[in-house]
Amino acid sequence: MAQGMDIERWDPECLFNNTDHRTDLNGVDRLIVRRGQPFSISLYLRSGSRYQPGVSSLDLVAETGPQPSEQYGTRASFGLSANIDTSRWSASVTSPPSDMVALSICSAPDAPIGRYSLSLGQSGKIDFILLFNPWCPGDAVYMDNEQNLAEYVLSQDGIVFQGSYRYPIANPWNFGQFESGILDACLRILDMNPKCLRNPSKDHSGRRNPIYVSRVLSAMVNCNDDRGVLLGRWTNDYEGGVSPLAWRGSVEILRNWDTQACQPVRYGQCWVFAAVACSVSRALGIPCRVVTNFLSAHDTNSNLTIERYVNENGELIQTKEMIWNYHCWVESWMTRPDLKPDFNGWQASDPTPQEKSEGVYCCGPVPVRAIKEGVLTSKYDAPFVFAEVNADVITYMKKKDGSTSKVITTTMVGQKISTKSVGSDAREDITHLYKYPEGSAEEREAFKKAEHHNKLLQQQQNHGLHVAIKVSPEMKKGCDFDVFAVVTNNTESEKKCRLVFGSCAISYNGNLGENCGFKDLLNVELSPGAERRIPLRLNYSKYGGLLTEDNLIRLAALLFDFATRETILATRTIVLDNPDIKVRILGEPKENRKLAAEITLKNPLPEPLEGCCFSIEGANLTGGRVITERLGSTVGPGEDAKVKIYFTPTHSGLRKLVVDFDSNKLGHVKGYRNVIIGK
């Protein structure tokens, strides 16, 4: 006859289990395990009591969420079996008969993630946290590649690409998903989501499914409909918060939200929303990466076409439909049992609040493969993401008399879709995962599937007169430089044209600032086959005060052919280079040994910098906090701003020290240094 075990005390073996489950970077003071993988608990029986195979019994109950129920999958009752069954909740004794019992327990590979309590018969309860397990073949987030897992789950830092498609800029980011308190903040995000507040039992049950969890995160990283993490702002006024460019990582943002009663952190823009979503996904065990789409379309009426208007100077007239210079979202790795098997793998979801989906500001997850194939019926929000990378662009000129005419232009959306390479800081181009080559038969086919036939072949309609914009190789913030409109006459006849060539400051999401250089040539004459280069001088004295923090200038050259009455438009957005930040590490980098970073930046501007301030942070380098050092003095033109900042690394391995410089005239310059910390 079975006899219940008489347990005096137990040890959850946190150091062993957390290390085995790759959660030890969260700390080893509590039990954090991954689903579908056994973990061990040591049970110590009361004096005179022994474990006897076939006689001793133990009733175990694992529960998560309020009102746990077997129907919802939030409660599991199970006893001892001869062997562990990794397909469901099970337990087995792995030690010989004695007064100490080594108990092996395994959760189901589709159990809901979150906080659990495990009852050991009548003896007591063990609390633990259960996460997704991309190392487990039975888990929906399973990823069969150790290098990819090291990058997309375990790596605590990375690169987010900004700038322009001709000039992508690699900016460092500290994801910090294993820093103290971050996992708790991530679980709190799930608990604060409106679906959980409305029906907690159903929501906790839904946490078995990474599709459901990533959709909740897409809604909760922004605060538009809920008590989400970040408030977005796209003007240059960041009163009551900080500029989105001030952030170096997710740790401070998630901690601020968690410690300030879930008040939204001010402010975010697309790369901040995406990077925070990536931190939370990795913390919960979903493989995730940040993706940047250059020339990203924002289609508001779902017709897969962006209609743009320019005035007679070639300046954009602001409308709701925009082409962002770049836009960032995340991809998460999972199977899609709700769709065709072809659609397993990377899923795009976008936490930046742009359009509503099912009544809420969220977007995705949608299979990247469905975007490529133009299967726009796929859940969730395929038409919106398809338009971001594939929309047609039609440009009209609005004349002073109110009439409009079509303009020939060659703008292509969805360029150089980029993410950080596995195991290096290089840029990986993943455009081919989202779309077939422009103009190819497969791309036409994908458009037809998307019920969309009018991809404009405007390039061919250009009857031999051509305008392009060329730039200087060195365009540094603080310098004066030339840009060029190059007009070519490929026809057999003499051409007389008017050229309007202008420039204005622009923010990365397409909001136009003021004019910073303009030229109107009423009589440009070109003989057959001739080419003319027309320079436009951009002076720091003119553009310096107009630039947004994005350092972007939009150039537009509008060519009017007097003979054919055609208008041809060329546009280009240029990024002005910030100065490099130089980082020297002083001392031998070892665990728990104090180091100094000597950080230097040369003032590139023809005016002094005041209020200079360097900040550093890095996973396992700065104790999960930001360390700031201010300069007392003004830094003159061409002079160095220089500081020494001390920090103590806590873990060995390759780490990224992320640096930010700020001042009154030169703001949020980013730099980083990879450091190998010895044991």
Overall description:
This protein has 679 residues and is an alpha+beta fold. The protein folds into four domains: 3-131, Immunoglobulin-like; 146-449, Transglutaminase-like (Coagulation Factor XIII, Chain A, domain 2), CATH 3.90.260.10; 462-575, Immunoglobulin-like (Sandwich), CATH 2.60.40.10; 581-677, Immunoglobulin-like (Sandwich). The chain is 16% helix and 38% strand. The chain is built from 14 helices and 39 strands. Helix 3 (182-192) crosses helix 7 (251-259).
Provide the descriptors you would attach to this structure in a database record.
single chain, 679 residues, alpha+beta, Coagulation Factor XIII, Chain A, domain 2, Immunoglobulin-like, six-stranded antiparallel sheet, 14 helices, 38% strand, elongated
In the CATH classification, which architecture of the largest domain applies?
Alpha-Beta Complex
The named CATH superfamily of the largest domain: Transglutaminase-like
What is the number of strand segments? 39
The global form is elongated
Main sheet specs: 6 strands, antiparallel
Measured by DSSP, the beta-strand proportion falls in: 35-45%
Query: In the CATH hierarchy, what is the class of the largest domain?
Result: Alpha Beta
CATH topology group of the largest domain: Coagulation Factor XIII, Chain A, domain 2
Residue share in helix: 10-25%
Number of helices: 14
Instruction: Identify low-pLDDT runs.
Output: 452-462
Structure classification: alpha+beta
What's the structural domain tally? 4
Mean pLDDT: 93
Radius of gyration: 29 Å
**CA(first)-CA(last) distance:** 53 Å
